[in-house]
Amino acid sequence: MVSAHQPFKRLLNTLMRAPDFRKCDLKVTLERMLKSTFKSAIKGALKSTFKEADMAHMIHAGVTASVTELKRNPMGTIAAGQGGTVAILNRNEPAFYCVPTAEYEAMLAMIEDAELNAIADARASSREIAVSLDEL
Q: Considering the entire predicted model, what is its pTM?
């Protein structure tokens, strides 16, 4: 595979063999062209790499669909998830998730359990109060 700067390098090597070339401004110009071409290739690669990295998102679903597909066929899009969560993308970025009812109810139960556990943990270190049934 031929890189973008190889033609400049070949030309520079050919011209450098000439006896009076080292005194010529052309050498400096060609070296600058070579360096700028090489730099621009690296900059382009880095820019595209970091642009892709900035746009990367974790998708927490096995199935994805676009907003357009959801508008066109909402129930078909949800059915495509086969009982699992469907990530809805807007311009290739996750906009929201369509979560089936059973999965949503399970998530709410887990959240409630975690909240109750936090309350129980906070009360576990509190002082015990002796109470008899007659006093209630």
A: 0.50
**Number of domains present in the structure of the chain:** 2
Which residue type sits at 121?
A: D
CATH number at residue 69: 3.40.1620
Tens-digit pLDDT profile for residues 50-60: 444 455 778 88
Using a 10 angstrom Cβ sphere, with 0-12 exposed, 13-18 middle and 19 or more buried, the burial of residue 100 is: middle
Residue 93 belongs to some domain of the structure = yes
Written as six digits, the tokens of 97 are 């998730």
Amino acid sitting at position 103:
E
Residue ranges making up the domain that contains 14: 6-55
Residue 45 lies in a domain: yes
Per-residue pLDDT tens for 82-135?
Answer: 989 999 999 888 999 999 999 899 999 999 999 999 999 888 888 888 888 887
Distance between CA atoms of 69 and 89, rounded to whole angstroms? 10
Q: Are the C-beta atoms of 57 and 93 separated by less than 8 Å?
A: yes
Which token pair is 116? Answer: 């109750």
